[in-house]
Specification:
Largest sheet: 8 strands, antiparallel
Order of helices and strands: HEEHEEEEEEHHHEHE
Structural class: alpha+beta
Strand content: 15-25%
Low-confidence stretches: 6-15, 18-27
CATH topology of the largest domain: Cyclophilin
Oligomer: single chain
Helix content: 25-40%
CATH superfamily of the largest domain: Cyclophilin-like
């Protein structure tokens, strides 16, 4: 009887630990949902837990009513609809928006292996690589992808482009290091020869690097619902539309004026973080 009691006690402890583990795992996997009410209808988005900096910032701004009464200031059919510029509150006729923000940026959380720019992707806008080589995101501006259907050839080319993205920074680093070493030695620098040598070393290194490839599911998404694959690997995707893709289509296809601002402004009426 004593042996049976011990066995039962051990079983209960193990079972309790399993239940606790499952509950903890489930709690961690819950994704926050935000309702975006616009003048053309409502959109629900879920925020990825794997991009916590962008998730938490978006939740914070939405909770503070930061986005309420702002407009979609840049809309391009077959591409995306962008919003989040605080200066677009009380928009003025003919005014172009897109340079405003909360006064800070967010470190990039780019992960094309997991999150892509399929239709409905919620992504962070940012300034260009020339002034923003670390690809930090705007503190508030975001875009929702409408996009278009892609084919296998386009996706294969995009895979190659993403795979080659590290090459430029690798080249710049190696060139700088080589040049500094030669300067320290007081050696004469032949620029053309140095560049050619570094380029060969970079290409040799690239041959042994693991190449990026879309999963079958990602390819299928691009070939059916569509998206903007050429943005993958360059911008942070931190959520996706789970309800209201028809509203995204409505926003993305409105008539626009020069500068891609809708002729009739489309407003974010309210954002609500759902419990």
């Amino acid at each position: 009887m004593k042996t049976k009691n011990v066995a039962l006690a051990v079983f209960l402890i193990v079972a309790a630990n399993v239940i606790t583990f499952c509950q903890t795992k489930k709690a961690k996997s819950v994704e926050k949902i935000v309702l975006i009410e616009t003048s053309l209808g409502s959109i629900r988005v879920k925020l990825y837990n794997e991009t916590p900096l962008h998730r938490d910032n978006f939740l914070k701004l939405a909770g503070e009513c930061f986005y309420d009464s702002l407009i979609f200031h840049r809309v391009i059919g077959g591409f995306m609809a962008q919003a989040g510029d605080p200066s677009s509150r009380n928009p003025q006729p003919g005014q172009r928006y897109g340079s405003g923000g909360p006064g800070y940026t967010i470190p990039a959380e780019i992960n094309p292996a997991q999150f892509i720019h399929k239709k409905g992707a919620l992504s962070a806008a940012r300034t260009g690589d020339q002034v923003n080589p670390e690809r930090q995101s705007s503190g508030s501006q975001f875009y929702i992808v409408q996009g278009r259907v892609a084919n296998d050839q386009e996706l294969t080319q995009t895979e190659m482009n993403i795979s080659q993205q590290p090459l430029q920074s690798m080249f710049n680093q190696m060139l700088t290091e080589k040049m500094q070493a030669l300067q320290a030695q007081g050696a004469k620098i032949n620029q053309d020869s140095l560049v050619s040598d570094v380029r060969q070393k970079v290409m040799a290194a690239w041959e042994s690097m693991e190449k990026f490839a879309y999963t079958p599911e990602q390819r299928e998404a691009y070939k059916t619902i569509g998206g903007t694959p050429f943005l993958d690997g360059a911008y942070t995707v931190f959520g996706e539309v789970i309800e209201g893709l028809d509203v995204v289509d409505s926003i993305a296809t409105v008539e626009t004026q020069p500068g891609d601002r809708p002729t009739v402004d489309v407003f974010i009426l309210k954002m609500t973080v759902e419990e």
